[in-house]
Amino acid sequence: QVEVKVKNAKVKKGGEQSVEIVVSKNGQPVSGAQVTVKTSPTGETPSAPPTDDGGKTSVKWNTTGNPGFIGVGVSAISSEGSAGVGGASFEITN
Fold first, then answer.
1. d(CA 1, CA 25)
2. Is the distance from CB of 61 to CB of 15 less than 8 angstroms?
3. Of 30, 92, 31, 83, nearest to 61 (Cα)?
4. DSSP 47
């Protein structure tokens, strides 16, 4: 399971967004999972470090898109090879 939480529901254009990601399997945190983040339609791919012992990682970046809703898609692959996906969205405002 991949939980995705955006810090800010609304971000000014060019502002900083932060996303917290929690990866778990059968209720247990998954550490060392490789996480890929991609925004849509802006296509940003901010780099997130592997998950920590609590299954958590986070990523910050400055948004580049025009005002509107932005989807954040996250995929995670554990060291055992199991995978999961999650997502969230936020809005860029003027």
1. 6
2. no
3. 92
4. B
